């Protein structure tokens, strides 16, 4: 290990290893297969890069025939970034990919033949081609294989790629080379499956802690999204942050909205050209822009330690995705914030996307993510225990649950009693979906078939909606008022649930209304994204009619956008849009709208003044 420590200090400038790095490197130097799980930011790339510069096991120098480490990676950009970083340090590394011409590929092959390379990066498809495999076997040069992003091997993982499963042939084709799998996120079942799929021989399992104590997790219900996003951005004004969106369209509209609000933001998604993506990524990495708004196409291999916040503008489809993406914040160990804005609609959207195609594993992962968002237990504890580790702390002090920031429903006890009573009335024979349909008053085929439209609980919570009830059922399960059992996950009342029906207990159910304040109490007005899209038109002097045509919106809708523009910019003169005499008449009678309603003023003028004219004038009078 002395070689490893010297290499770490010489090439990376560190005088000691992070937790598990030394153990992982030792297994490679000993020639033993391994699986290393180190969460984002823990330095897993060093684990397979440093051994390439060291003597092998039993102190032997790596011979010319076996001096090469082959790194398997899924993305060209990720490989290129790592190779560039290594060559800048003076480490002989190269990659071969589909974007290179034949001359460039031959140069890499010549370096392999001459024993000049220590690290060769390849995509799984490139490595597994008969030509590449034949070349590497002929050279007898491979000392070990490092499989990066190894969760792609497992169908139980969150980013399964079929081509990765073919990597199991490496153990047969290269019996003298060890194989080492690396990933930032893998549950116990995924870890076991990775080892099985790759055919690892008696592997050493090294699993780091999944807890990131310097991250504060907040998972509020989505409401006025732009207001919620700006609250976070303003708390970290001038600092680096990432905002993840579920679609390219959301990326573009959110980026434009942020730029309109004066935030130095850039976008990143697969619909952009390669040069555009690289330019925007370079701007972010070099601190020329503060906020990157992106789909999940952005982030893999990003080594920026000072990202102070990560916002998810929508629920990811698995806890693994969330843990990896949120983990890009605070890699320097300093306090950082992770905010996930979610709604029941996110679950429905993902369910539609997965319909008929996704495995049961993917659906289970989505359900686990839904439960994490909507639970009322410590976020740190829930994430750590999802990955099979004990948390061991009562209150983390770094999540919205433990900080007491959750907005609870005023009628939590009454709603909880209705839900538990319904489970009891249904004889504890049905799952959460059926219970929710009964409580919401859905007269579907199954409810009618069993005459559940006739029980007392039918429609008891119809004003709240089906998804809200499902959320509350999950929260009652986590608080031990209900339990699930059997292959059909039927619901049953617990002893605590039965006591609740007698008026004993204090259940906590989250509010569905979006009348809550931001975490820091910021009450500054932030327009909606739809309004912000019109601001450039208003700034250019376009009329309401012109903007309505350009945006394909009704004039009444654009008039509401205009009132947001007026409020945001503090405009006090309505005359660019309302005749001076009309504005004076409205202001003379503004007392009629004391409760904020415009109809009394409209009625006072007997229709001579439009609602839009009233609305615009009063917006200028704030």
What does this structure look like?
By secondary structure, the chain is an alpha/beta fold. The strands form three sheets. The chain has a seven-stranded parallel β-sheet, with helices on both faces. Strands 8-13-12-9-11-10 form a six-stranded parallel β-sheet, with helices on both faces. It has a two-stranded antiparallel sheet with strand order 14-15. α5 links the parallel β3 and β4 (119-122). It is globular. Residues 57-63 and 513-522 have low confidence and may be disordered.
List the helices and strands and how they pair.
Layout: H1 2-12, H2 21-29, E1 34-37, H3 44-49, E2 68-72, H4 76-88, E3 93-95, H5 102-113, E4 119-122, H6 124-127, H7 130-139, E5 142-147, H8 162-165, H9 170-173, E6 178-183, H10 188-198, E7 204-207, E8 215-218, H11 225-235, E9 240-245, H12 248-260, E10 265-268, H13 274-285, E11 291-294, E12 307-313, H14 319-326, E13 336-341, H15 344-354, H16 360-374, H17 379-386, H18 412-425, H19 432-439, H20 445-449, H21 466-478, E14 482-485, E15 490-493, H22 495-501, H23 529-532, H24 535-539, H25 544-551, H26 555-569, H27 580-588, H28 599-604, H29 611-620
Parallel strand pairs: 1-6, 1-7, 2-4, 2-5, 3-4, 5-6, 8-13, 9-11, 9-12, 10-11, 12-13
Antiparallel strand pairs: 14-15
């Amino acid at each position: 290990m002395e070689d490893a420590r010297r290499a770490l200090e010489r090439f990376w400038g560190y005088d000691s290893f992070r937790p598990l790095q030394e153990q992982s490197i030792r297994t490679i130097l000993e020639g033993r297969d391994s699986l290393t799980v180190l969460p984002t930011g823990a330095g897993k790339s060093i684990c397979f890069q440093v051994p390439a510069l060291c003597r092998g096991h039993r102190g032997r120098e790596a011979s010319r025939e076996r001096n090469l480490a082959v790194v398997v990676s899924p993305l060209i950009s990720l490989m290129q970034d790592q190779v560039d970083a290594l060559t800048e340090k003076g480490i002989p590394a190269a990659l071969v990919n589909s974007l290179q011409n034949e001359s460039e590929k031959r140069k890499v092959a010549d370096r392999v033949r001459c024993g000049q390379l220590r690290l060769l990066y390849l995509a799984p498809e490139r490595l597994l081609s008969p030509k590449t495999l034949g070349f590497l076997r002929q050279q007898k040069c491979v000392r070990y294989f490092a499989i990066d992003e190894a969760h792609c091997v497992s169908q139980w993982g969150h980013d399964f790629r079929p081509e990765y499963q073919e990597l199991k042939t490496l153990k047969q084709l290269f019996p003298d080379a060890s194989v080492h799998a690396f990933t930032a996120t893998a549950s116990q079942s995924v870890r076991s499956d990775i080892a099985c799929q790759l055919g690892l021989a008696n592997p050493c399992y090294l699993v780091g802690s999944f807890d990131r104590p310097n991250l504060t997790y907040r998972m509020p219900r989505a409401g006025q999204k732009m207001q919620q996003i700006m609250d976070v951005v303003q708390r970290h004004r001038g600092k680096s942050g990432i905002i993840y969106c579920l679609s390219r369209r959301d990326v573009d509209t959110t980026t434009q909205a942020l730029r309109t609000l004066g935030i130095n933001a850039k976008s990143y998604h697969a619909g952009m050209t390669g040069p555009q993506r690289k330019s925007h990524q370079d701007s972010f990495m070099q601190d020329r822009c503060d906020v990157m708004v992106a789909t999940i196409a952005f982030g893999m291999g990003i080594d920026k330690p000072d990202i102070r916040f990560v916002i998810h503008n929508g629920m990811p489809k698995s806890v693994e995705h969330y843990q990896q993406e949120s983990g890009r914040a605070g890699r320097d160990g300093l306090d950082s914030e992770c905010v996930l804005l979610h709604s029941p609609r996110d679950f429905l959207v993902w369910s539609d996307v997965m319909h008929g195609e996704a495995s049961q594993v993917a659906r289970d992962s989505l359900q686990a993510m839904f439960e994490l968002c909507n639970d009322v237990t410590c976020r740190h504890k829930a994430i750590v225990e999802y990955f099979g580790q004990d948390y061991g702390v009562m209150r983390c002090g770094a999540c919205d649950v433990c900080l007491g920031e959750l907005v609870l429903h005023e009628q939590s006890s009454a709603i909880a009693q209705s839900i538990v009573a319904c489970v009891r009335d249904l004889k504890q024979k049905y799952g959460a979906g059926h219970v929710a349909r009964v409580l919401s008053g859905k007269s579907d085929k199954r409810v009618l078939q069993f005459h559940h439209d006739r029980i007392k609980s039918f429609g008891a919570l119809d004003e709240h909606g089906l998804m809200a009830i499902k959320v509350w059922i999950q929260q009652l399960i986590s608080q031990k008022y209900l339990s699930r059992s059997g292959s059909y996950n039927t619901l049953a009342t617990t002893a605590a649930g039965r006591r609740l029906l007698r008026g004993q207990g204090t259940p906590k159910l989250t509010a569905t209304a979006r009348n809550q304040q931001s975490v820091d109490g910021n009450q500054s007005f932030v327009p909606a994204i739809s309004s912000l899209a019109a601001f450039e038109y208003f700034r250019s002097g376009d009329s309401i009619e012109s903007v309505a045509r350009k945006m394909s919106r009704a004039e009444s809708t654009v008039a509401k956008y205009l009132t947001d523009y007026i409020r945001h910019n503090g405009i006090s003169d309505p005359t660019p849009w309302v005749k001076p005499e009309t504005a004076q008449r409205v202001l003379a009678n503004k007392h009629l709208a004391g409760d904020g309603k415009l109809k009394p003023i409209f009625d006072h003028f007997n229709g001579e003044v439009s609602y839009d004219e009233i609305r615009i004038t009063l917006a200028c009078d704030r």
